[in-house]
Design goal:
The complex is a heterodimer of chains A (about 200) and B (about 325). Chain A has three helices and eight strands; from the N terminus they run ββββαααββββ. With about 200 residues, chain A is an alpha/beta fold. In chain A, about 45% of the residues are buried. Chain B folds into two domains: about 45 residues, no CATH class; about 260 residues, Aminopeptidase, CATH 3.40.630. The longest helix of chain B has 26 residues. The N terminus of chain B is likely disordered. The chains are: A alpha/beta (about 200), B alpha+beta (about 325).
Chain lengths: ~200, ~325
């Protein structure tokens, strides 16, 4: 989902039917996308092609972070079954091994919700000899507040640099380098705005 | 409270500084964690992976033509011929240089200096010749010229090279102190052409071509760690200055694989040979050691008999 400035806002509300346990709302993930750069081998891509590629790559990263962090329904108790669908080639099998680095990992089972507070993206495209956007490096910064199942507060930071390219018509990740952390935040104490009793 | 998952990863030496220390230290959220009674605490990291599939090594023939501006690059003598073996699975590579005067069979042209194969039949005949001599199937060839090399080095902002010994050569223009320095395109070309002020003439020159390739690999890898998008600049500059039978996909995948190969995992050797005569011409007769190198290289693209990171002249 491509958007302008701003970070997560609660949006999608999935409600269960009568008698069913009501799901927590899933936060919407809104990316702030910086200026897009391009490096042409010969002629540069058209503005329209670059914009289209920007939207597609942003959507890919949006789906990746939704799977990996934002939507508990996609965590699969820590197995993140849809994670591999965002990758191609050797990076796909590697991503399976790096699941803990690319997602909330095993911590997911203890986390109730994740609310994004910042999602920024920088994009740089390689333009092929046919003047088409061919590949991109996407640098993502993701911050979120989290809540454990026992009410503890978390702060989540994840940064990734992803090499993506069009594979059989679909933009997918073919290389990555990521780092992040999930840390507990001490209770700020009574009287502090936003404190949890 | 952060626990690196794989602190020893080479890629994170630079990246960890940038992300793990710099970014976290500047993280405003840190200030909120006044008493970090950590229940869940974890650091995450991973690294780029080779983009080329499979266990089979890849063999690339790098050819340097002595064509001057306005001359046909693929119909001149080959000043530089290197077989580059890449083993994506092991993240390692080998560079094997041919002395340009190596006296070898050239298909359709009898025995001659190997550098004539480019003049007689273009890069395809060089490939055929090298395949005949080595028994190794070459997957791709890459051809450049004096001008192409100069432009490439300038296009990437210069090349940091560890010059192995002082050079002062009138003919090539090589004039360097020993040690690491950044060469511009003209200087890199002079370094590559020098065969008069070297310990072992053309053998040393071929060795130095390998050093340039290793320097380029090391620089690409280092710059990629800082900013992966430099890969695009290198691809663009490279394709603007070489001829090759590599497709664009293959160029992309190979360079993405190259950044996973550390220079310490590259062996640079020149084929051994002795000076002989063929008629009036002085030539290099490859010795038995050359066949041993080919046999060693063929199975996995690597030279087990030479330590990785080795730089061994003829």
């Amino acid at each position: 989902m491509l958007a302008g400035a701003g970070a997560g806002a609660w949006a999608l509300l999935r409600e269960g039917g009568p008698g069913e346990e009501e799901d927590l709302p899933v936060p919407d993930l809104v990316w702030e996308v910086g200026r897009v750069r391009s490096t042409p081998v010969d002629a540069d891509a058209s503005q329209g092609d670059l914009e289209s590629a920007r939207d597609a790559v942003t959507d890919l990263l949006d789906r990746l972070y939704t799977t990996a962090f934002v939507d508990p329904a996609e965590w699969g108790d820590g197995s993140f079954p849809e994670l591999g669908s965002h990758f191609a080639g050797p990076a796909a099998s590697r991503a399976d091994r790096d699941r803990d680095d690319l997602t909330l990992g095993g911590d997911a089972a203890r986390i109730e919700r994740v609310e994004p507070t910042e999602a920024r993206l920088r994009l740089s495209f390689l333009v092929d000899p046919q003047a088409a956007a061919y590949a991109a490096v996407a640098t993502a910064t993701f911050r979120a507040d989290g809540r454990t199942t026992d009410g503890g507060a978390l702060m989540i930071l994840h940064r990734g640099r992803y090499v993506v390219r069009r594979v059989e018509g679909e933009w997918l990740i073919v290389g990555y380098d990521v780092e992040g952390s999930v840390e507990s935040v001490a209770d700020p104490g009574p009287g502090t705005p936003g404190a949890t009793p | 409270m952060r626990r690196p998952v794989a602190l020893g990863l080479a890629l994170l030496i630079g990246l960890g500084t940038w992300i793990g220390v710099g970014a976290i230290a500047a993280d405003p959220y840190r200030a909120r964690a006044q008493t970090p009674a950590v229940e869940i605490s974890r650091a995450q990291d991973a690294r780029f992976v080779p983009s080329v599939r499979g266990n089979r090594p890849i063999f690339i023939l790098a050819i340097g033509s002595d064509a001057r501006p306005d001359e046909q690059v693929d119909r001149r003598l080959a000043d530089s011929i290197h077989v580059i073996g890449v083993n994506p699975r092991q993240g390692a590579a080998s560079i094997v240089g041919f002395p340009r005067d190596s006296y070898v069979p050239i298909p359709g042209f009898g025995e001659a200096k190997i550098n004539e194969s480019l003049y007689n039949g273009g890069p395809e005949l060089v490939v055929e010749t090298v395949e005949g001599v080595t028994g190794i199937q070459i997957d791709y060839w890459v051809l450049t010229s004096f001008r192409g090399m100069t432009s490439m080095v300038n296009g990437i902002g210069g090349l940091r090279v560890d010059v192995p010994y002082p050079m002062d050569d009138f003919y090539s223009g090589a004039d360097f102190e020993a040690g690491e320095q950044v060469l511009d395109g003209r200087q890199a070309l002079a370094f590559a052409r020098n065969r008069h002020d070297t310990p072992d003439g053309d053998f040393s020159r071929s060795q130095n071509h390998g050093l340039l390739l290793m320097a380029a690999l090391g620089q690409l890898r280092a710059e990629f760690r800082r900013d992966p998008s430099v890969l695009f600049q290198w691809i663009a500059v490279g394709l603007q200055n070489v001829q090759t039978d590599l497709g664009f996909d293959e160029v992309f995948d190979l360079l993405l694989t190259a950044v996973t190969v550390g220079p310490e995992q590259v062996t640079n050797v020149v084929l051994p040979g002795g000076i002989g005569m063929a008629g009036e011409a002085s030539v290099v007769i490859l010795t038995d050691g050359a066949q041993a190198i080919f046999d060693d290289l063929a199975d996995d693209g690597l030279l087990e008999s030479a330590p990785a990171g080795a730089s061994d002249g003829g």
